[in-house]
């Protein structure tokens, strides 16, 4: 179990360019003065649109915030109109890549084979993988755990070495008024952590929760997860600050247990 706690934000396609740049400025200021982000107890990453990547990298320069992309191509170069390769993303300073989000699977028909190919592309180019997994329908926690562990292996079996941030996002909870119940998340996250720990070449990998995650959830989850993956609830920097405070408290508890 890592001592640090991860807090990530995906902006999806909610912000226009000007709004995104204003948000970057506010969050960069927050990150620069938040003690737990500065000293590494809390890992913070932001995943904007492709067009916003370079302004984000510039805005967060000098902070510990890591910038990621919302998707990657399956290939590193070639005649793939409209695609962006993991190789180019790494070249400009992007350090994470999100793969397998439920919206990519549902809206754009991404199969498990495509997710596996994108996973391999991100890892072979040195990017940390943010791998999104989740069951489609609400089922018993043990059944959900079996399904997402299957998805994990489908994406990672045979993939290059590298760190993975496993983002458990039950599809039925994405965009819902409330996240999945804490007890459900705990069962699934525990199964995912055991599965990740059993893999070779996945040092420092973590399991975080997304799916209508917001302030207060990390406190309720406690040791069940290694952090949160936020969406619309992080559009308000004050709400993000609250989550960073919760993450810092969790990191301190973990450090105390480790000591």
UniProtKB/TrEMBL annotation:
GO terms for molecular function: triose-phosphate isomerase activity. It is found in: Cytoplasm. Its EC number is 5.3.1.1. It comes from the Bacteria. Keywords: Cytoplasm, Gluconeogenesis, Glycolysis, Isomerase. It catalyses: D-glyceraldehyde 3-phosphate = dihydroxyacetone phosphate. GO terms for cellular component: cytosol. GO terms for biological process: gluconeogenesis; glyceraldehyde-3-phosphate biosynthetic process; glycerol catabolic process; glycolytic process. Pathway: Carbohydrate biosynthesis; gluconeogenesis; Carbohydrate degradation; glycolysis; D-glyceraldehyde 3-phosphate from glycerone phosphate: step 1/1. PROSITE patterns: TIM_2 (PS51440). Belongs to the triosephosphate isomerase family. Homodimer. This is Triosephosphate isomerase. It comes from Agromyces albus. The lineage of its organism: Bacteria, Bacillati, Actinomycetota, Actinomycetes, Micrococcales.
